[in-house]
Amino acid sequence: MLTNCHAFFLWWIEFPFPTVPPTLPPPRTKTKTVSEGRNVTFRCGQKIIHKKGKVYWYKDKELLEYSYPGYLSLNEDHMSIIANAINEGTYTCIVKKKERILTTYSWRIRLRH
User: Fold this and answer.
1) Could you tell me which CATH number the domain at 26-111 has?
2) How far apart are CA 35 and CA 32, in angstroms?
3) Where do the structural domains in the chain lie, given as residue ranges?
4) DSSP structural state of residue 76
5) How far apart are CA 30 and CA 56, in angstroms?
């Protein structure tokens, strides 16, 4: 005979756990599969930067503020990385003028295995 406690325990074991839906990539995302050690350069906002917009670079939704020698080089309208396991991810550039977004682009970098 099952007690209320046992019935609750069995319900908990059999309860289907929800799965987390995959995170959708940002719109306008290009996927690049590259060999490890390859230098990859992204260009952004070259045609609209003259409108006094400012370019912001992100990796996996985190703002990139500094260059890291040997890994990442940030410039106004382009950014370069050396492809490795640490640098895999989604890179996004957002060109803003004040709070208005002028354009965004994203690239997903995957290593070729």
Assistant:
1) 2.60.40.10
2) 10
3) 26-111
4) S
5) 18
